[in-house]
């Protein structure tokens, strides 16, 4: 049984791991949701040797794996959530790392000058960062993922079944829609392939059950994707 | 023969790939340094299907691999620049991804509110970002890499030979020393293991020859690590 360690009150980066586990029907314990964030901090601080820099991390039989793309690559190999051919594996990891870059830039929108400070302490800077993100970076990322969604003959990113990068694209689109409802309403029609993958992932049996359950934490103002209306515009 | 595509006038993210290739004695053509950045842009724009989001990317026999950690993982497997055991591979990839996170935060210091704008257009914001990075994030990252450097019985990160994560740590330390000479002079003594790895990588035959050659571009004010004296402090 996998142990997943991630903050209990936000989707955050842990959600990319949760979604792959849920879509794949893989059993896991979401430790901090059962034991609290203090238990997560204690677990993290007690570790020595090969330690995670930050949550999320996944533990199984003494093996501890951190960094979302690293965890997903591992799960992909162990549970066939990814193809096994070299070129396909590289492409999928490449996409996941580009999703991670996009997520980091999203976080930077509301925390441009101080990861350790509150949003309220950096609102003017966040407004500037958001303007540029909406105008330039967001369409560039979405265009790239649209190209990826249409580079395959099938409906998914690779072949004819979902992979961990499909579930990650779902989460990225869902988060961006929550954070930038106006901007995404304008942009979404330009990316039909990406929106198709979002819809198909939402309709996977495991994901549908997960989204309807209490295990899915709602988007809120403490995660990576935050809805501050002043940072959004059509 | 590998083709490496990256901007010709900066070390940037391409340098992590260049260093692994040079340390490993692996032949490659640094395409944009021979043909210019216009050729890189043309190559990137002409691609269809599975395209890179951004340089660097590596091409061999029709296979195109982007994202630094992805490229290094590939080179590690193909050229034995990484151990083959599962736990070791995961640990190395995890470290490389944490190095990538640190590099992204370094870039964010001088471009906190506009990736597409100049530093001069965001100096007050950069000053704020730098202060927090120097005080909080930098020691946290360096402490993590120090733990990694001392988690192994040998002198390197894993076993008794260098890996691509060792060459990447070298570049991270070199870049941080260029960008924050005062701050790093204060901090460096606290991280002897990390500094040891930096020195040992610099002394590898392939790296020594590379650093003395014209192939090594000097640090400058267009790359990721930039020395703006106003952003540094002891």
From TrEMBL, chains A, B:
Write down the Gene3D superfamilies for this protein, in alphabetical order: 1.20.1050.10, Glutaredoxin
Signal sequence extent:
none
Q: What PROSITE patterns does the record tag this protein with?
A: GST_CTER (PS50405), GST_NTER (PS50404)
Q: What positions does the domain GST C-terminal occupy?
A: 85-231
Q: Which Pfam families match?
A: GST_C_3
Cross-referenced SUPFAM superfamilies: GST C-terminal domain-like, Thioredoxin-like
**Record-annotated GST N-terminal domain positions:** 1-83
Q: Which domain of life is it from?
A: Bacteria
Instruction: Tell me which InterPro entries the record gives.
Output: Glutathione-S-Trfase_C-like, Glutathione-S-Trfase_C_sf, Glutathione_S-Trfase_N, GST_C, GST_superfamily, Thioredoxin-like_sf
Coiled coil located at which positions?
none
Q: What PANTHER family does the record point to?
A: GLUTATHIONE S-TRANSFERASE
Name of this chain's protein: Glutathione S-transferase
- Which lineage do the record's taxonomy fields give for this organism? Bacteria, Pseudomonadati, Pseudomonadota, Alphaproteobacteria, Sphingomonadales
